[in-house]
Amino acid sequence: MHVIAGTLRPDEGSIRFKGEMLSGVPPHRVARLGIGRQFQDVRVFGGLTVLDNVLVGMIPHRQQDSFRAWFGTRAARRLMRRYQVEAERWIEHVGLQEELKRNARNLSFGQQKLLSMARLFACGFEFLLLDEPTAGVSPRMIEKITALIREAVNERGVTVAMVEHNMTVVADLAYWIHFLHEGRVAFSGERSHVLGNKNVRQMYMGL
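RESULT FIELD:
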C-alpha cells in the first residue's frame, strides 16, 4: 500500500493505474488520479471539527490560497457553501451528523475511522486502500464499517483493496484474496479457494 500510494518507491517492477505509471509518483499526485488511502492509525486532524476534516480534502488544490481565505468573493462563498452541503451529506452517510462541530480528537477511535471514511467518500476516490479498517473497534462498529464498504462497492462502483486480519470480515467482503505468510504471497484466489485451503488455516490459525 505504501508503494501504491507513493510513500515508498518499489525496488523493482512497476505499478500502473488506468494506464498511468504510479512508480515514483508523489502521494498528492496519486490522490489526484483517484486513489484514496485510510491508514490503520486513522490520522484525522485532531484540532479540526468533523466538518472541517471532511472539507479540507474536498477543496481542489487550485482553490486553496490565502487570498480566497481572507478576501473571499461572493462566488467563492457560494462555492464553499456547496462543498459544505456535500461534506455534511457524507458525514450523515457514516452516521456522524450529531458530531458535526466536535473536534476530531474528542471522537472515539471507531468514530475517527468513520470520519476518515467520510473524508474518502466525499473526495470521490474510485480506488480505496484501507489498512485494517476494522482493527481496534467494537463488533457493532465493525458491522457499520463493513456495511459502508459494501455499499461503496455495490452501489457506487468503488474498488477497494484492504489489509485485514479479521477473517470474518475478509470472508464477508472479499472477492479475491492474497494470503501473505512471512512476507510472501502464499496463496491467491477467490474467497472460497483461499479460506477453504487447509494450509492457510494451519498457517494463520494453527489448525
